[in-house]
Target: Lrp/AsnC family transcriptional regulator
Amino acid sequence: MEDLDAQILKLLAADGRMSFTDLGKATGLSTSAVHQRVKRLEQRGVIKGYGASIDYDQVGKPLTAFISIRPIDPSQPDDSPERLRDITEIESCWSVAGDESYILKVRVATPTDLEDLLARVRAAANVSTRTTIVLSTPYEHRPTS
Amino acid sequence: MEDLDAQILKLLAADGRMSFTDLGKATGLSTSAVHQRVKRLEQRGVIKGYGASIDYDQVGKPLTAFISIRPIDPSQPDDSPERLRDITEIESCWSVAGDESYILKVRVATPTDLEDLLARVRAAANVSTRTTIVLSTPYEHRPTS
DNA sequence: TCTGAAATGAGTGAACA
DNA sequence: TGTTCACTCATTTCAGA
Model:
């Protein structure tokens, strides 16, 4: 990882739609040079993708929660992420060390929807759940230098 | 929230660099029409921004963790998010219901860096911490339909 | 790996339905 | 809100250093 690539990554993490022209101005490179570097970073998978961050309060999904799950039968192989992949309310899934095996981040419209979602998670992965409701999000997705 | 706006948001959440031309083809609108809608969604704050998602394993920050914090002195007003804002290793901060008051998502290079970070978090916000290490990330940042 | 030039394609704004 | 058109600017490729 070079210094120039690190600069480009930070700029793109902060503004994923920044143009190659502007990236060039910010880094002192020509448009073509940044273009080549960005394409290479994409091919190597250093840049995994681009996204828009949405205000879910404004689109009818104001309720965010973390669901920690733990297998009911620890003797079985744990393929929870695959079993849960089709549940579209799950935005992220992290495998973690500690009392629980995975943490899910989910987004729903209402408490009733959350109750329904929990039932589907338990049934699909044969797990017990512990849910933490998000009250507000002071900040999120900050570029970690 | 209209159907067309919802489509656009989903497409942009999945690919934040998709061109207005392609968005138009996908939604059946003209380039200008999507352009107008996207600008309006940005102005209203429905689209909060755009970002690149980085593979931090490849840029020397392979260690991700969740830190749950709780005030040591509950009689004091809790402005932890402001006190912690300048710690750049913190990628996200959620206010939550439950035993703890906030959950932080952090990214560092090594366990020693995590130890150091925990000390800084405790000192800056006068909190106790509970840390959960992320072992792997099966998926993350999925567009929640 | 970079630059600069040239071609293609996208972003942007105005006039209008 | 939508479309089309005309203009500007960005993206992409390539030759050369």
